[in-house]
Write a structure and sequence with these properties.
Radius of gyration: 21 Å
Oligomer: single chain
Strand content: 15-25%
Strand order of the largest sheet: 1-8-9-10
Number of helices: 12
Shape: flat
Helix content: 25-40%
Length: 393
């Protein structure tokens, strides 16, 4: 067991972006494509990229699965854009131009990852994946990214419910948190930039946003926040936004999707990928393991790294770092993990039930720290490995 280290006081910042951010529009569409194929065949292979710009959406990628009519996909894209809330001159769900360039997956890739008589299903690519958990919040997530997500989620809910008609879909948030002795002590700065109806000042937008922010951050963390440290639309005007303001691409918000920079990232994006791609499924598995390790009391913080080679079933390495917060030797935890959880692509998919069409809701407000649903969403957030971990030590 490592000697517990007293952490210094410091400031740490994380940002989030809303479902209307151009890159997140793309993530939503790409994950919708994944769900569309998995709903017809749970073993579909999907690698879908999306680009958005002024009144244009372009799909490209590789598919192996059932035949889905192009017009069906285009109709679902329009539904995604409508649900996000884009009915603007520069980007409108009804009349934007949509192109689909999806094509058949390479047979070379299929040969490497498919199971056969003498081999189990292999990883869909090489790479490294990280999972993380800590005691900052009850969701075992780092506080800055978790509350940054919550601000934008509350703003979107209010906008869609007609309670914040001043707001438009594209927005960003950022929280700076003071940590004292390694624990979140208070929010020192909040930044929110949001697209809005024409003719409104930052002060007017701030009055709309302020109660939403106050409702999603614990009072003890923001009671000392000064008004001048709460920035809203600091550039002054944000009317043109979304894909009309900036081009969007799938997979460009990987730190927003994970831990806000509080933990390492392997570099691979999630959205648009079926669960044979370990960039996605193994990152979910690593989060699941890290969260259960912390919840079981084995440590107060846990970073897990997994590594894979394309076509190879088992992970090449399992690494754990608890930053000195462990109650059990880290090497012992590393050794017990494969006994409790099959980390092959098939094992991950089956344990976490990842072959279901569950991915569209992951495309905004983070893949982690979410609530598992009775429809199978966010299974990697469950704490059903805690008792097995406790019994192992």
């Amino acid at each position: 067991m490592n000697e517990r280290k007293m952490k210094r006081s410091y400031l740490f910042t994380s940002e989030s972006v809303s479902e209307g951010h151009p890159d997140k529009v793309c993530d939503r569409i790409s994950d919708m494509v994944v769900d569309s194929y998995l709903s017809k065949d749970p073993l579909s292979r999907v690698g879908c990229e999306t680009l958005t710009t002024t009144n244009r959406v372009v799909l490209a990628g590789e598919i192996r699965g059932p035949s889905i009519d192009k017009e069906e996909i285009i109709s679902k894209i329009r539904s995604c854009i409508k649900d996000i809330g884009y009915e603007q001159t520069g980007f409108h769900w009804k009349n934007c131009n949509i192109e689909s360039h999806l094509h058949e997956q390479s047979s070379d890739i299929a040969m490497g990852i498919d199971s056969g008589e003498n081999k189990d299903e292999g990883a869909g690519d090489q790479g490294i994946m990280f999972g993380y958990a800590c005691r900052d919040t009850k969701e075992l997530m780092p506080a800055p990214i978790y509350f940054s997500h919550q601000i934008l989620l509350k703003m979107a809910e209010a906008r869609k419910a007609g309670k914040a008609n001043e707001l438009e879909p594209d927005s960003k948030s950022q929280i700076t948190m003071l940590y004292e002795n390694g624990k979140p002590s208070k929010v020192t700065t909040i930044v929110v930039s949001t697209q809005h109806k024409d003719g409104l000042s930052p002060g007017q937008i701030k009055e709309v946003i302020k109660p939403l922010v106050e409702n999603c951050i614990p009072e003890n963390l923001i009671s000392d926040l000064k008004d001048e440290d709460f920035y809203v639309n600091p550039t002054g005007n944000f009317v043109i936004g979304g894909p009309d303001g900036d081009t969007g691409l799938t997979g460009r918000k990987i730190i927003v999707d994970t831990y806000g920079g509080a933990a390492p990232h392997g570099g691979g994006a999630f959205s648009g990928k079926d669960p044979s791609k370990v960039d996605r499924s193994a990152a979910y598995a690593a989060r699941y393991l890290a969260k259960n390790i912390v919840a079981s009391g084995l440590s107060d913080e846990c970073i897990i790294q997994l590594s894979y080679a394309i076509g190879v079933s088992k992970p090449l390495s399992i690494y754990i770092n608890t930053n000195g917060t462990n109650q059990v030797d880290e090497s012992k935890i590393e050794k017990i993990i494969p006994e409790l959880f099959d980390l092959s692509p098939r094992g991950i998919r089956e344990h976490l039930k990842l072959s279901n069409p569950i991915y569209e809701p992951t495309s905004a407000y983070g893949h982690f720290g979410r609530i598992p649903s009775d429809k199978g969403h966010f299974t990697w957030e469950k704490l059903n490995l805690v008792e097995d971990l406790k019994k192992s030590f």
